[in-house]
Amino acid sequence: MTDAVWIIAKRVINQIGRDHRTVAMILIVPLVVMTLIGLSFPDLRVLDYIAPALLAALALFFGFLLTGISFLRERSQGTMERLTVSPVTRLDIVVGYLCGFFVFALIQTFIILFYTIYVFDINYRGQLWEILVFQMVVIIGAVNLGIFISSFARNEFQMVQFIPLVILPQMFMGGLLWPVEQMPDYLQWFAHILPLTYAVDGMREIMLNGMNLLDVWVDLAVQAGFAMLTSVLAAITLRKGAVG
User: CA-to-CA distance for 170 and 163, rounded, in angstroms?
Assistant: First the structure.
């Protein structure tokens, strides 16, 4: 990590941290969402099964939304234009923002995870630390995806419109609502190129079947590869994505 990465990350953390309303939303919204979801399942055995997929999907959703809108705001304020003409590389900029946004996305994910486990008392078999590590890799991909997609939005309304284009298809075809194997063949092919499919599969293998990270190395590798790919794409599109 270069000094520029840490400087950018620290700036992002300080800026969001000073916005008390944003911090409150980051802390409260996951609790409200999981409370509504948890109470909608009168049979906790169903929640035990759906929880791993929900945790993966919500990590993707909240990480994408938080990062996309926050990064768009940075561009609209002219911060990105100043950074792109400075000596730092575009990859340094992306990694710096990744580290900064990752902190808050991780907080949201931890709130959802611990609230689901300890308040709704779901049953799981895997090691908690392995669940956390897997979720962290999912978050990195979600944050990078938010940075990359925000390059194509000119305002917050456009950024929000990417949710039904980028996130909802993954929730419908990634195994969250029904098994991928029960879909038509052409949808199964599409599902197997979606990162959420592997996030859901990995979380279920760990939480429901008690597997470890080595057992789900394929799912973990896909998540890591997706995170690396989106970081490179974000760096490539960074300059052309300036708002103006």
Answer: 10
